[in-house]
Amino acid sequence: MPSREMTMAEALRDAMRLAMREDPRVFLLGEDIGIPGGFGGGFTVTLGLSEEFGHERVMDTPISEIAIVGAAVGAAMVGMRPIAEMQYGDFVFCAMDQVVNQAAKMRYMSNGQVSVPMVLRLPVGATRRGAQHAQSTEAYFMHTPGLKVVCPSNPYDAKGLLLAAIWDDDPVVFLEHKLLYGGKGGRKEKTSLDPVALVPEEAYTLPLGSLAIRREGTDITVLANMLMVHRAMQAAAELAQAGISAEVIDVRCLAPLDWDMLIASVRKTNRVLIVEEDNLTGGWGAEVAARLGELAFDHLDAPIRRIAAPDVPVPTAPALENAYLPHAERITEVVREMVGR
Amino acid sequence: MIFDVVMPALGATGGDVTIQEWLVQPGQRVEAGTPLVVVETDKATVEVEAFRAGYVRELLAKPGDAVSIGAVVARLTDSMEALTETPVAPLPSTRSTREHESTEVKASAGKLGVSKLPAKASASNRLIPDDATEISADLLLSMFRQMVLIRRFEDHLYQLFLQGLVPGTLHQSQGQEAIAVGVCAALRRDDVIFSTHRPVAHVIAKGGSVNAIAAELWGKATGCARGKGGQMHLTDVAVGVMPTNAIVGANVPIATGAALGFRLMGTDRVAVSFFGDGAVNTGAMHEGVNLAAVKDAPVIFVCENNQYAASTHISHNLRIATIAERAKAYGIPGFTVDGMDVVAVYESARAAVARARRGEGPTLLEYTCYRYMGHSRGDPGNYRSKQEMAEWRSRDPIPKCRALLLNDFGQDERTLDEIEAECQAEVEAAVAFAMSSHEPAPEEALRNAYTTWPEVFYAQP
Fold first, then answer.
1. Of A51, A303, B169, B374, which has the maximum CB count within 10 A?
2. A48 and A193 share one domain
3. What is the pLDDT of residue B448?
4. Are residues A310 and A266 in the same domain?
5. In the listed set A161, A178, A200, which residue is the last one of a domain according to the structure?
6. Do A188 and A288 belong together in one domain?
7. Mean pLDDT of A285-295
8. Buried b (16+ CB within 10 A) or exposed e, B160-169
9. pLDDT over 70 (residue B94)
10. A60 and A99: one domain?
11. B187 vs chain A: nearest CA distance in angstroms?
């Protein structure tokens, strides 16, 4: 199938465009997503879509996060497939009732009489904007029954998982890391990584719940998501030169989560390191470590360890943000401690 | 027909208001929104407007009179001929002097226009559509039956609660039946309603199964949600009852989204959000109504102003004269209507529904009413006076509807008695069905959190 190079923003846009062409029930709502002369959402993801689909289906809203999520819940309950966007993931806290009490619980409370097939897109990650435009929020949603949680690390996964999320009949919280979007010109992030990948032009889906082995290895399993996958891969390349074989697994879906695949990797490597940009206490890594401790204890040769952000809000200054985030050097250091080489 | 003009809940204290000046005279033609009377509250001088078009039949209070909230201050008719008919409503409770003179300095005594149409409103924004027709005897009988069914069911539940036989919580709606019934009578089966923690009246009025409601209250496998919902979370999607919501205010943006979905699908279906006076100060209410307004969403916001948010009187929560007045801030029409009169409710809802279907956007309907029971089980309502309760009960919507049927619609006592007996039998059968149904199997607790979830991922250690 024909492919072309896409950034993550382009891949996400492509997914939404294809879904909207295929199904009139798919529509977008959020702040600044379709204003003529505007910027296509905070990170250009929806750029050009209002020109193709009009302002009814690319619906600009007031700065009203409760209404954005609430309207998506209501539309989904009557059969639409809304994709709601928070301009920054942190703003979802304004709408937590709609996410946690409404979207997540409607199906259960009605015993399946309604479902809520919506996607909630959240740009996350520290980008020198300070504590209220930076938080990693996945743990809140992984903890909430009724929600599915997806957090891709590259353009190929982003397109396939977003299409799967759109066609899924449950509410999906879809996290996108701001340093991975690939914004251009004035929208480029200063410290961005901006991965580009060959992405099929046609529609495809990746199963929600699936993980991806990014690098096979035998000495240790390193679990990471979003930006941290790239840092883990950098560390794994350095470790290989020291003769240490690290297996890197991209935990691109947190709910559901393919425990069988994690256990299979632990059986092979007998060691687990979890790397997350999230705060340490109660982060997604805490749940993974606890569960693997219960499910795979007999296969572990060392305590499961975590590298995470410290338990403080995200600082703003480059020197402080740099100190706050997990880096490849730290991953290399901890792996060497764990492997003993 | 004759329609009461009831003094809406104005002002911050909920106490009496003083009639300053009548702006209309008997015999005069008025439109919905025509200012009728200027009244003074302890906060402001306010105009009260006609909630429907008609003719002024009589004025029941004179300038200087103190009038209590909910009192009938005037009567309108729908035709010139009816100007001379005999009234059926109870006499108004006006007093010639205030019982307590306040010496407080009046703050912000600006002149407020209550429920004025917004600047962009056109003639088609009028509350009563031009094609308004006489209500039929069949429709009124059907609304009477539904109100009686709800009342009998709620009263029966209360009796069982007192005997300790109701397993869960109970939020009852006696006194508010006319709103549920009048609004739902203006809807089609494929329209949807979003209700609250006090949902029984709405669900029955929209056509929900009483058996399934009762069984859900008793946590049985035959309940509408097999016991996963309970009293506050009733659903009957087949008749347009979306899951009822126990987070105050939350259904306002949700109903707006459903309405936007209906429009995107190219249908003329509408959504209704029911909420109480307690919901109007939530952020969800503000955001949801505003979004509906700027998008002209086909949604009707129905505020049941029963005067109390749990135990807190509305005067503690609101500085403005009426909730309908809020509509002005969103640029949509808003009206205060007597929620104890099922005909007034039906006609106002019908107009708002027609407006939504025409693509003209949302309407805020404030219905003044009273919750006879406490907020929930175990609340004796000690924060309310016996006199206040008696005044509201004297305006009960069911006897009022019954009198209308007898006097104006040629129905006889026997027919109406039979309806009451049938409703009583139906609720008793529903509760017997609920109590004799099976409990859900324990594994039911794990079902339906998700539509699809790979079985392997349920693996527990």
1. B374
2. yes
3. 93
4. yes
5. A200
6. no
7. 96
8. bbeeeebeee
9. no
10. yes
11. 16
Considering the domain architecture, whether residues A188 and A222 belong to the same structural domain is answered as no
User: Is A206 a member of any domain?
Assistant: no
Annotated catalytic, A133? Answer: yes
| B192 touching chain A per CB within 8 A | yes
Contact between B285 and B362 under an 8 Å Cβ cutoff? The reply is: no
Chain A contact present for B383, CB below 8 A: no
Q: Which of B250, B255, B459 comes nearest A259 by C-beta?
A: B459
DSSP A200-218: ESS-----TT--EEEE--S
Q: What is the pTM of this model?
A: 0.84
Domain region containing A243: 212-339
How many whole angstroms separate alpha carbon A223 and alpha carbon A249?
5
CATH number of the domain enclosing A21: 3.40.50.970
Integer CA distances (angstroms), A257 to A148, A160, A261, B216, B458, in order? 9, 17, 9, 33, 10
The CATH number for A321's domain is: 3.40.50.920
Average pLDDT, chain A: 96
Please name every residue paired with A123 in a beta bridge, in sequence order, or none if there are none.
Answer: A176
pLDDT digits (tens, 9 = 90+) for B120-157: 333 333 455 444 557 999 999 999 999 999 999 999 99
Q: What is the pLDDT of residue B457?
A: 54
Say if residues B176 and B184 touch (Cβ distance below 8 Å): no
For residue B455, give both structure tokens: 């079985």
Choice between B44 and A220, residue whose per-residue pLDDT is larger: A220
B453 at interface of A, judged by CB pairs closer than 8 A: yes
The answer as to whether A304 is a domain residue is yes
Decide if A91 is inside a domain: yes
Is B383 annotated as catalytic? yes
Alpha carbons B45 and B67: distance in angstroms, whole number = 14
Nearest 5°: phi and psi at A246?
-100, 135
Helix, strand, or coil (residue B24)? coil
Q: What's the complex ipTM? A: 0.96
Nearest by CB: B258 against A25, A77, A295: A77
Take residue B449 and report the two structure tokens written for it.
Answer: 């959190």
Q: Are B187 and B353 in contact (CB under 8 A)?
A: yes
The C-alpha of B228 sits at a distance from chain A's nearest C-alpha, in angstroms, of 5
Selected residues 222-251 of chain B with any CB under 8 Å from a CB in chain A:
224-226, 228-229, 233, 235-237, 242-243, 245, 247, 250
A165 shares a domain with A33: yes
- Contacts of residue B313, defined as CB under 8 A and 6 or more positions apart, other chains included, come to B14, B307, B383
Which chain A residues contact residue B259 at CB under 8 A? 74
Total of domains in chain A: 2
Map out the domains of chain B with their CATH numbers. 2-93+108-114 (2.40.50.100), 137-436 (3.40.50.970)
User: Are residues A127 and A192 located together in one domain of the fold?
Assistant: yes
Q: Do A62 and B287 touch (CB under 8 A)?
A: yes
A286 falls within a domain: yes
Residue numbers in B near A294 (CB within 8 A): 461
Residue B99: count of CB within 10 angstroms of its CB: 9
Mean pLDDT, residues B27-41 taken together? 82
- CB pair distance less than 8 Å for A66 and B283: yes
Q: Of A200, A221, A247, which residue constitutes the final position of a domain?
A: A200
Read off φ and ψ for residue A254, nearest 5 degrees: -100, -25
Residue B154's nearest CA partner among B97, B196, B213 is: B213
Mean pLDDT of B23-51: 81
- Please write the tens of the pLDDT for every residue from B194-216: 999 999 999 999 999 999 999 99
Contact B153, B200 (CB under 8 A): yes
In whole angstroms, what is the distance from residue B240 CA to residue B52 CA? 28
| Co-location of A179 and A229 in the same domain | no
Q: What are phi and psi of B323, to 5 degrees?
A: -70, -35
B195 at A interface, C-beta within 8 A? no
Measure B16 CA to nearest chain A CA, in Å.
Answer: 37
Instruction: Select the residue of A56, A62, A209 nearest B264 (Cβ to Cβ).
Output: A56
